[in-house]
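Morning!

This is the sequence you dropped in the shared folder:
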Amino acid sequence: MLRNSNSSGNDIFEQARLSRDARFDGRFFIAVKTTGIYCRPICPANAPKSENVTFYQTAAAAGEAGYRPCLRCRPECAPGTPAWEGTSTTVQRGLRLIADGALDDGDIEHLSDRLGVTSRHLRRLFNKHLGASPLAVAHTQRLHFAKRLIDQTTLPMVDIAIAAGFGSTRRFNDAFRNTYGRTPRDLRRRKAVAEPSAGLTVQLPYRSPFDFLQLLSFFEARAIPGVEVVHDKRYLRSVTFDGAHGVIDLHDGGGNVLLTVHGAGTRSLLPIIQRVRGIFDLDASPDDVSRVLSRDSFLKREIRKRPGIRVPGVWDGFELTVRAILGQQVSVAAATTLSGRLAKRYGEDCQIVVPGIDAEKTPALIFPPPEKLLRARLGDLGIIRSRADTIRRVAKGVVEGDISFDGTQDIDEFCKSLVSIKGIGEWTAQYVAMRALKDPDAFPDSDLGLLRAFDMQDRERLKPRELKQRAEAWRPWRAYAALLLWSSDKNSGG
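The structure's back. Tokens below.
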């Protein structure tokens, strides 16, 4: 997990450090023994001598070893590292729950219970794969998030402490003194320019290349009327968190996605940001994806046409599953229409004003939760009886806890649970795993759009088993291959 720069097998890290290679930003951190700080590979400071450097895979590991974050390169602004990379499935799920605030109260026993392991085993897994304990990971996440809010917003310090999950301003101040040697007020660099009425805006970094317009095109074709809007190269949608309604508004800022949150409380800001990172796949590593997929001559040409492909995520897994059921054996446009009708009848009003956006272009509905669709009458909405029954079965499974989209279930177990519901097939399960659980290797091999993509190359259309066999070489990035193949056909992809 941590390595000295002059140990064997670290030539790549050392070269990336000396060349300040941006492709490695967030992939590892550089701890400098003589200064006691840790930096990103792109830090503009003079490069320290190799014998004074130790590499850590995560910021949490560097922090737990006693190093403090660099104030110049700001490790809290590094792009995220994919949660699946080099970790066990239990650690993947644990990271997702921690990102959603599962350790804000410091209860590691509760987290381990949700993951189905002992707390001792969970600590061992985190130390093995990340070089830091679950509590250290959670602490670093809170600290880095608070530092970004200090730099990017005019929020009062008490609000930042609440947003970052610190139990009190005293703990908040102590954490910054212990880590940075300064108080939060001493670290505030500048005043943010956004007016309070315009919502709270934060920068979400990503690795280039990033095809933001491809994501917008995908979302626009599938936007649920009243719930989602794509307008003027922006994506807006209604959200609900801890009982409060809000609207998220995103656009590309070049190197960062700019997220503005309207209406939701400060306490919900960190989990909202984590979900948004998943929606726009901001922690993806395009170089890793391209390296594997380019081995296929057909996909290599597609990557050249559309570099920076991302897998679009979702705000809510239940919403996506309903949308996928409605999309079975109909066009994308037809499924969008049906989803809009369902949201209009059973959704809740979201009366949030977004400055600068006309009311008719502002999301006005909250998609109905599973409790509202348990006994919903959907026949007169144009939804055929079998699909209406399937939607109610899925709603029941979520309400009763048999289906969970929060990452507590293993992906294979999740897919088995979903397929066990009458009306849900392997295609739907893989599609939901791809977008809701962010499985980079999910692959609906029976999808017509994927099979059709090779028509111009092959004399006869591929059969599902042939596509599945060919896709074995695309692991573990088959979901990205699917997006490449779908991207030229708006009527594909659920």
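Headline: Residues 134-152 form the longest helix (19 residues).

More detail when I'm at my desk.
O.
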